[in-house]
């Protein structure tokens, strides 16, 4: 069987982590880079990733996560913090980045900038946040696939008190949308032995 | 350099495909399976993937895609069709699937079913669709990472006339949210030589 598929079958939303096992620095960089390299609409990357290392902070986040022990027990804990809006200054900053990376004059990107500004101007702040959030989910998909290939366990989480997270992480222009615990499964986690449940291929796919 | 990172750097949103090169059946199955195995909230998988093989239909979709030639020129074209709502019948069908796959009695899953129904009942239809859509973006991330590892090019697309797509694909309870062209880059696609633009790691990550 193909290695990628084998590893995607191997992974599961880990419930109990082996608290003694830590992800090494090399793998950690690969995990992070897989998110940073994820594509996003227009390339805007309207989110950032907070790597929570402070044990004290993880304990506080745990109390806002409906009892999910992965927050404190996993080797690492990432929070995806999404930009609340998508406005002219964000687009201007991005245009500056494109110009720098591609050795262009900003004026050569006027058409691209105008198009993005006209698109985002049609969206309400709630719609901007929603669009931004979706981009973070692409990064999540990249991260989960990469973790599986590295034999690293992961638990994607949407279930936490977002407002409390925002305060604890001192977010102002961003909001916590997703979190991912990463590490190594405990041999005692019974969930690893449960059959993976997915829609059958003939239901999930339609070929026309 | 790590192979995964190397391949994520290799990939880019391909603009011009080599129309003579086709993805083989083995790779196609791996690409599809990488989406089907993607996780989703509660495991509900509130979307399906339409593999558009009909050349005539791809031509019609092209005309609703703002001139993006990838729709017709790439080897394959996938459309992610997201459930418009997330209601009791969806949850009941999922519970049946879990019971079958894990050889359980449906009654053993009453608590899980009740929890999901109570969560989704708090969401407006628009919020349900939005939540469903986000799950499709995880599948997209899995697909794009997998394609890159197989040296297959991909172009994720949000820019198309969704209403026209829904009609052409005869979607009733789903809406077209994302599309992905897949195949092999043309050697003449100038975009492959442009520097990849991503936020610097010290901006994109925050370690606390």
What can you see in these coordinates?
2 copies of one chain form a homodimer. Chain A has 208 residues and is α+β, with helices and mostly antiparallel strands. The first copy, chain A, folds into 2 domains: 3-40 and 47-84 and 129-186, NADH Oxidase, CATH 3.40.109.10; 87-122, no CATH class. The first copy, chain A, has helices spanning 3-10, 25-36, 55-62, 70-73, 88-101, 110-121, 125-149, 162-168, 201-204, and strands spanning 47-51, 76-83, 153-157, 174-183, 205-207. Chain A has a 4-stranded antiparallel beta sheet with strand order 1-2-4-3, with helices on both faces. Chain A starts with a helix and ends with a strand. At the A-B interface, α1, α2, β1, α5 and α7 of A face α1, α2, β1, α5 and α7 of B. β5 of chain A pairs parallel with β1 (47-51) of chain B, so a sheet runs across the interface.
In short:
Chain A is an alpha+beta fold and 208 residues long. The first copy, chain A, has helices at residues 3-10, 25-36, 55-62, 70-73, 88-101, 110-121, 125-149, 162-168, 201-204, and strands spanning 47-51, 76-83, 153-157, 174-183, 205-207.
């Amino acid at each position: 069987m193909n290695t990628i598929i084998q590893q995607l079958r191997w992974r599961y939303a880990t419930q109990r982590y082996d608290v003694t096992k830590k992800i090494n620095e090399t793998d950690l960089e690969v995990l992070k880079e897989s998110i940073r390299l994820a594509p996003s609409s227009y390339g805007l990357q309207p989110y950032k990733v907070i790597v929570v290392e402070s044990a004290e902070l993880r304990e506080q986040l745990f109390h806002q996560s409906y009892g999910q022990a992965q927050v404190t027990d996993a080797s690492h804990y990432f929070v995806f913090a999404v930009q609340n809006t998508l406005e002219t200054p964000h687009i201007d900053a991005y245009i500056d980045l494109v110009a720098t990376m591609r050795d262009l004059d900003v004026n050569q990107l006027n058409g691209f900038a105008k198009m993005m500004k006209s698109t985002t101007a049609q969206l309400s702040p709630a719609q901007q946040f929603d669009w931004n959030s979706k981009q973070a989910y692409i990064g999540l998909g990249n991260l989960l696939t990469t973790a599986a290939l590295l034999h690293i366990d992961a638990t994607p989480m949407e279930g936490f008190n977002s407002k409390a997270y925002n305060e604890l992480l001192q977010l102002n222009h961003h909001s916590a949308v997703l979190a991912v615990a990463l590490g190594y499964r405990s041999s005692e986690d019974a969930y690893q032995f449960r059959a993976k449940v997915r829609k059958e291929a003939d239901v999930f796919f339609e070929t026309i």
